[in-house]
Write a structure and sequence with these properties.
mainly alpha; 11 helices; 60% helix; globular
């Protein structure tokens, strides 16, 4: 083999690997938190809309979903080519954001846009929910991005009708029972995340599935006590899933702070929402370590999952208190 051939044989693959590594570093990126109130105001001015009740929340849903698709590197969860296929932190972050987008799209279809259980659902929101629940890893025929953009377009169509005083069939009802119904789902999501994050160190856990109801039964018997531990290779997946969900929730909670201002003020619950947002903001602090550390609870190394679980648990407890406040007369 000649010297030139040897250089090509070694140099070309090395250069490709270097380019791939640089691109992976550049693509491993989480978008910054934005101001949903300011974005809603700009959106309304650009389209000549009125800032009616529900406008900020709906615009926040659109903007959050758009960030998912238009951030640096685009949507990566369904990419099958290098270097995107080698990344897993950002795809898990994307799925976390998508989870909250899906939950709010369902809540808007079932609760926020309907005056009562027997009222007709909004057709645009019904279409949007189906689009957002499309497979997050479909890369062709059709690709996930195409379906999610259709969902964004459907929500935008609802937003245009909502801001039009002549289209009275498009409504957003800012009531205490509506936001409480959405918060139930948020509390469940955060509770699950907190448990999965805490399981990074492993723990013996008693079975409390039927606690509090002597007559309760379940489909199959479960052990009285079991070891709960997140697999080592899944720890960073859970961490970035949590980062994505809390990222989305910060914007959605800020938006609802505006649209439900009168309801929250009437229940003296505005400060509770602000405290929830503050706890969620802590989850977005920069991670200075190149890897997610999983030290033992009181060991020498940090445990990023436990820190994240702490913020999420406090936010979850505040959401539980908020729901009780909203239930009071």
């Amino acid at each position: 083999m000649t010297t030139r051939a040897r250089i090509l044989w070694i140099g070309v693959p090395s250069a490709l690997l270097l380019i791939c590594a640089v691109m992976m570093f550049w693509l491993n990126y989480e978008p910054s938190v934005f101001n949903p109130t300011a974005r809603a105001t700009v959106h309304a001015q650009e389209h000549g809309h009125q800032l009616v009740t529900g406008y900020t929340t709906t615009a926040a849903l659109i903007e959050t979903a758009d960030v998912l698709l238009s951030k640096r590197g685009g949507y990566m969860s369904n990419d099958i080519m290098p270097p995107w296929v080698f990344l897993d932190n950002v795809p898990n972050w994307e799925f976390g954001v998508l989870t909250q987008v899906r939950d709010l799209a369902r809540a808007m279809r079932n609760d926020f846009s309907r005056s009562q259980t027997q009222s007709t659902e909004d057709p645009d929101l019904a279409e949007a929910e189906g689009q957002f629940f499309f497979d997050s890893r479909s890369w062709i025929f059709p690709e996930s991005e195409t379906e999610y953009r259709k969902g964004i377009a459907d929500v935008d169509a609802y937003l245009r009708r909502l801001a039009d005083p002549t289209k009275t069939h498009a409504q957003f009802y800012a009531r205490a029972d509506n936001i409480r119904a959405w918060l139930v789902g948020v509390e469940t999501r955060l509770g699950s995340l907190s448990q999965r994050l805490s399981a990074s160190v492993g723990k013996r856990q008693l079975n409390v599935d039927l606690a509090g109801d002597a007559a309760a039964t379940q489909a199959t018997d479960a052990p009285r006590e079991e070891e709960v531990k997140t697999a080592w290779l899944k720890i960073d997946d859970v961490f970035y899933d949590a980062r994505g969900q809390t990222y989305a929730l910060i914007h959605l909670m800020r938006a609802m702070e505006i649209d439900f201002a009168e309801v929250l003020a009437d229940k003296n619950a505005l400060v509770s929402v602000q405290q929830i947002i503050r706890e969620l903001e802590g989850t977005q602090d920069a991670v200075w370590s190149p890897i997610i550390l999983t030290g033992s609870g009181f060991g020498l190394l940090a445990n990023h999952s436990l820190v994240m679980a702490s913020y999420i648990s406090r936010a979850n407890a505040a959401i539980s208190d908020l729901r009780m406040l909203l239930a009071q007369g």
